[in-house]
Amino acid sequence: MKALPLFLLAQLCSASLVPEREKDPEYWRGQAQETLRDALRLQRLNQNVAKNLILFLGDGMGVSTVTAARILKGQLQNRKGEESLLEMDKFPYVALAKTYNTNAQVPDSAGTATAYLCGVKANEGTVGVSAGVTRDRCNTTKGQEVTSILRWAKDAGKAVGIVTTTRVTHATPSAAYAHSANRDWYSDGEMPPDALEGGCKDIARQLVENIPDIEVILGGGRKYMFPKNASDVEYPHEDKHRGTRLDRRDLIQAWHDVKPPGKVAKYVWHRRDLLALNLSRVDFLLGESQHPRGGMWAAKGGRKGGDGGGRGCKAGKGRAMEGDGGRGGRWRAVLGTAGGRIDHGHHEGKAKQALHEAVELDRAIGLAARLTSPQDTLSVVTADHSHVFTFGGYTPRGNPIFGLAPMQSDVDRKPFTSILYGNGPGYKIVAGERENVSAVDFAHADYQAQSAVPLRQETHGGEDVAVFARGPMAHLLHGVHEQNYIPHAMAYAACIGSNRAHCNNAAAAARPAPATVLLPFLALLFLLC
């Protein structure tokens, strides 16, 4: 049994694994000194008023996912990977957020969204309401509604937007505008009779009615906006994409109807329509594909044309910044973008999908960093929760992140992949034994990594998540915080919400801003994520 560790030690120490420059101690000393100089510069705190706020939310992007995505990013660039930097890694301030819900040690995306958007911890399965609301009980909702940072920004005259790779009525974005005792009440067709009779509104209706002047909404889930059995514009012959609304309302038309006279509101359902818009002449933009789950991935980890959701998320990189805000000056806005399919990939045990999604989200973060200034834009990157995802096995430097560990199990004498899950659909027994991964294509995008416990869907993890911050007042995000602290710190930086006394002399904070320069920026993020 001693031969295995000795072999592994020899492999880890092999000179071929170590880049030549890293053999020189001066390389590491120089790197550390450069990092020290950067840290010393942070002593000059950026206390400007944040004219713009950007929140990037990687749904399910726990610390292990961030690390694995960093390695993947480097390996996609033909590097070893471990030494790479994600765009979020370049943010100077990092904190940890405690993710538990008020009634759950391991949280769900609804209760966490209420925390990091509304500043209040809540019960699992509920959105935009306090912990006084019990899941599924409509009659506990009244008087327990809590508002989000998006509402605070609107009240301060800012332009706001939501961009997501999930349906826009999903738990993650819906806490920005909705108040619901159940995260799954997407339309009235998903609500029980007692909730309808009790006067509770479905989430899609709240999207249109609660904050009707959201400048940008981009995501999936359009079937919840149309009457029951109405044919889908893109998939007219597929029953699963038909409308779901029992009230027979067309919420897209309702969205148009509430816009002020003289304002230009555009609805798009396909990527080509979005690319065709002159965004500098649009005041309000609603883009809804079908629910972007499924059919999105090709065998090498790239996206397929898919089922409508993917069509809004692929290309057109330079196009969206056309126009320079002809309707008025620099944008002052609050916007949120969600990489929701990281979570979907993990739930399905498909680590390749989850990690590629994390890399795509990071591209959007980098784009935003290039298009904004840390002098007036506070950018925050975080996750709602983690997953029971891990990678290990004493892999050598540069080991393919989706590859095998360099050793076999000393129990069943079979190989195993570095990436594993604590539970999930990857649990497979063949002839009474653990499946031999060398007999399957573990590099395939749809490969489900092995798990310790069999479940149809892998679960969330309960550990803290990272919070990365850059820009005005970013230093307020430090140490270990309750997750609901995040929007309070962001609001303080932008002089919105309840903490505005320090902004009395900051005249710029009170001026409302046009949305027209926000529109192309948000559209570009959507095309990239």
UniProtKB/TrEMBL annotation:
Annotated segments matching region Disordered: 296-329
CC cofactor: Mg(2+); Ca(2+); Zn(2+)
Keyword Magnesium: yes
Binding site for Mg(2+): 59, 170, 172
Binding-site residues for Zn(2+), renumbered to this chain: 59, 343, 347, 384-385, 460
InterPro entries reported in the protein's UniProt record: Alkaline_phosphatase (IPR001952), Alkaline_phosphatase_AS (IPR018299), Alkaline_phosphatase_core_sf (IPR017850)
Membrane topology term: Lipid-anchor; GPI-anchor
GO function term, MF aspect, one: alkaline phosphatase activity
TM ranges: none
Catalytic activity: ADP + H2O = AMP + phosphate + H(+); AMP + H2O = adenosine + phosphate; pyridoxal 5'-phosphate + H2O = pyridoxal + phosphate; a phosphate monoester + H2O = an alcohol + phosphate
Subunit-structure text: Homodimer.
Designated name of the protein: Alkaline phosphatase
GO cellular component terms given for this protein: plasma membrane; side of membrane
A Gene Ontology BP annotation from the UniProt entry: biomineral tissue development
Catalytic residues identified in the record: 109 (phosphoserine intermediate)
Top-rank taxon, per record: Eukaryota
Cofactor binding mode and count: Binds 1 Mg(2+) ion. Binds 2 Zn(2+) ions.
EC nos: 3.1.3.1
Signal peptide feature range: 1-15
